Amino acid sequence: MAVLRLAWQSLLNRRFTALITIFTIALSVALLLGVERLRHDARAGFANTISGTDLLVGARSGPTQLLLYSVFHIGNATNNISWKTYKELSQHRKIAWTVPISLGDSHAGYRVIGTTPGFYQHYRFAGDRELAFAQGRTFDDVFDVVLGSEVARKLGYQVGDQIILAHGAGKVSLIKHEDKPFRVVGILQASGTPVDRSLQVHLSGIEAIHKDWFSGSPIPGVKFDAERVRNMNLTPKTITAFLVGLKSRIATFRVQRDINEFEKEPLLAILPGAALAELWEMMAVAENALLVVSVMVVLVGLTGMLTVLLTSLNERRREMAILRSLGARPAQVFVLVVGEASVISLIGLLAGVLLLYLGMAGLRPWLETEYNLFISLGLPGSRELSLMLLVWVSGTLIGLIPAQRAYRNSLADGLTIRV
Amino acid sequence: MSQPVVEIRDLHFRWQPDHDDVLNIADMRVEPGERLFLVGHSGSGKSTLLSLLAGVMVPQAGTLSVLGQNLRALGSAQRDHFRADHVGFIFQMFNLIPYLSVVDNVLLPLRFSRTRREHVARLRHAETDEALRLLEHLGLTDKALLQRQVTELSVGQQQRVAAARSLIGAPQLLIADEPTSALDPHHRQAFIELLFRECKEQGSTLLFVSHDHTLGGRFDRRLDMHDINAVRQEVD
After folding, report:
1. Interchain pair B98, A326: CB under 8 A
2. Three-state helix/strand/coil letters over A139-207
3. Residue B1 forms part of a structural domain
4. B81, closest residue in chain A (CA to CA)
5. Are B109 and A326 a contacting pair at CB < 8 A?
6. Per-residue model confidence (pLDDT) at position A316
7. What is the pLDDT of residues B131-151, one digit of tens each?
8. Could you give the number of structural domains in chain B?
9. Which residue range(s) make up the domain with B91?
C-alpha cells in the first residue's frame, strides 16, 4: 500500500529519533520478556528441585515447614525421627527404597547432610536428572565428605582437602568439631537445587562427631578421638527426615496414610510436588509484582514513542497538507501515522527479542554459577508470544492518538501549508 | 459547446452557520485550455475559493462544478479522489516532501490516482521515464541534481519539481497558488512561460492565483477577486 511505503520513507527520514524510540521499546520489551522467562524458569527450577521421591517423611509439623528444612535447608526441624521407626517403616512392603537425612551441622554457613550413598542413587531433579560428580566419588569412609558445586567453588576446595564441620547452622558457628576433620572425596556438578549449597557425609560421620556429645553440647571431660570413634557403634539414634520411593505410585496415598497414622511416633509424610506448588504460591505476589513492574516499563517505552510522534506532527503538518493536495484522504493521513507507530513498535519488539536472546546467551553462565538459575534459550512460548503480540497491538493502538490529531489537523488545515 | 472546467453560480460560503459569508460569487466560468489569472490580495477570499475548487470544503449554497462534476454532490472521500484524479497543485513554497527523492516527489500523484497512473501507462513508457521527461522539459536535466535531497535544491528548482509533479498524469486543471512569489523577478516570468508551455502540451487548464498584478500580462484572461466576490472585504 502506497501510504505505508510513505510511512516507511518518512520514518527513515527521521531515523535518529526513530532509532532512539525503537531502542527504548526494545529495552523495555527485552525486560518484559526477560522477566517472564526468568519467572517461568525460576518456577520450573523450583518445581524441579526434587523429583523421583514419592514421599518425604519427617517428625510431625507442617508440610511447608518439613519441605523447607529437609529439602531447602531453611530453618530447623522441631523434632527428629527415631532410627527404630525409620528402620521399621523402611520395611513397609509397598516401599521400594528410603534415604535417611540427618541435618544439624554446617560448614562456613553451608548445611551438612548426613545420609547414605543411596542419596546419589535416588535423588532426582529437573524431571529425571541425577546428581553427577564433577570430581571424585561418593563418600565411603566415616570422615569422607562430598561437596555441592557452590560450596566447592565459593570456598575453593579441591578433592583431598581437609575441612572441619561446625555444630549448628549459621556462618558464625558456636562450636566446631575440630578434633574430627573430614576429607573431601568428591565434588558434585551444579544442579540448580539446594544440594549445590550443601555438603554430604555418611550418617555414621554425623554420629561419629557427636559420640562425645549429649543433647546438643559436648559432654564435659569426655573426649573420643577420631581413631577411637571409628571402632564404636556408629548407628545413629535419630535422623531428621527420609525420602521414600514406592514400588508403585498408585500406593502413594495409602502409604502416606500408613505413615501419618503410625502409632509409635507422630510422623508427617508429604508429597514433595504438591508441597512445592503450595510453597510457590506463597511467592506468587512477588512474582506478579515483578511482572507488573516490567509491564509498566513497556508502557513507559510506548509513551516515549507517543511523545515523539506527537512532537513530530507539528513539523509534519506541511507534509500532510502536500499529501492532501495530491488527493490523500484524511483517512490516509491517519493510516500514515498509525502505520508509523505500528512499524516502530514492531521493529522495537523484534529488536527487543534479539536483545533478550543475546543477553540471555551472555548472562547464562553467570546466572547459573551465581544464582543457580538455569535459563532456557528455547523459542518463545505461547505466553511470551502473546505478550509480544500485546506489545505490538498496544503500540499500534497508542498510534491512534497522534493519528487522530493528524486527521483533525488535516481536516482543519486542508491545503493551507503551515510552515 | 465544450463543458467549462469550472462553473460557479450564486455560491455562498461561510465558516460557521452563524457567521457571515466570506464568499459570495454570482458567476465564474473557466473554459477548457484557458489560462486564467486570478488576482487578489490576502483576505480577498482567494485561498477559500481554492479550497472549494479542491473539494477540501464545500459551499453552503449555489452551484460549484469542476469538469462538469457537481462537487456538492460528492462525499468528502469522493472529492479527495476527484482532486487526485483531475487537479494538479503548485503552492508558493515548500511544495516537496523532504524525505522523498526528486523523482519520487514527481511520481507521488500517481500513488493516489489510478486515472493519472493509467494516463502515464497509455504513453507506453515507464512512470520514472515520464517523471524524467517532465523534469527535462522544465530544465532539470542534471543527473547529479536529481540524486540530491530535495531540500538542497534552490527554490527555483523546487518550484520546477513541483510543476512537474502537478503535471504528471495530465490532470485537466492546474491550480498554481502564488507559485512565483518566492522566486526573483527574472525567474518569475520564465517559470510562467514553462507552465504555459506544459499546460498547452498537455491540454490542461491553468488557474494562476497571485496578488501581484504585474504577472498577469500574458494570460488569456484576468479576474479580480474584488470583482467576483460580492462580500465586502476589509483591506488590511
Report:
1. no
2. CCCCCEEEECHHHHHHHCCCCCCEECCEECCCCCCCEECCCCCEEEEEEECCCCCHHHHEEEEEHHHHH
3. no
4. A327
5. yes
6. 83
7. 888 888 888 888 887 878 888
8. 1
9. 32-58+75-228
Q: How far apart are the first and last CA of chain B?
A: 41
**CATH code, B37:** 3.40.50.300
Partner-chain residue, chosen from A5, A10, A324, that has the shortest CB–CB distance to B56: A324
Residues in chain A: 419
ipTM (interface pTM) = 0.86
The answer to whether residue B102 is domain-embedded is yes
Q: What is the mean predicted confidence (pLDDT) over B31-36?
A: 89
Residues of chain A with pLDDT under 50: 419
Rounded to whole angstroms, the Cα distance separating B236 from B225 reads 15
In a domain, B5, yes or no: no
- Taking the domains of chain A in order of start, what are their residue ranges? 2-46+284-413, 55-270
B72 C-beta neighbours (distance < 10 Å), count: 17
- Asked if B85 has any chain A CB less than 8 Å from its own CB, the reply is yes
Q: Is residue B23 part of a domain?
A: no
Return d(Cα A197, Cα A372) in angstroms, integer: 10
Biggest alpha carbon–alpha carbon distance for chain A: 105
Cα–Cα dist A353/A288, whole Å: 21
Q: Which of A240, A234, A169 is nearest to A199 (CA)?
A: A169
| Longest CA span, chain B | 55
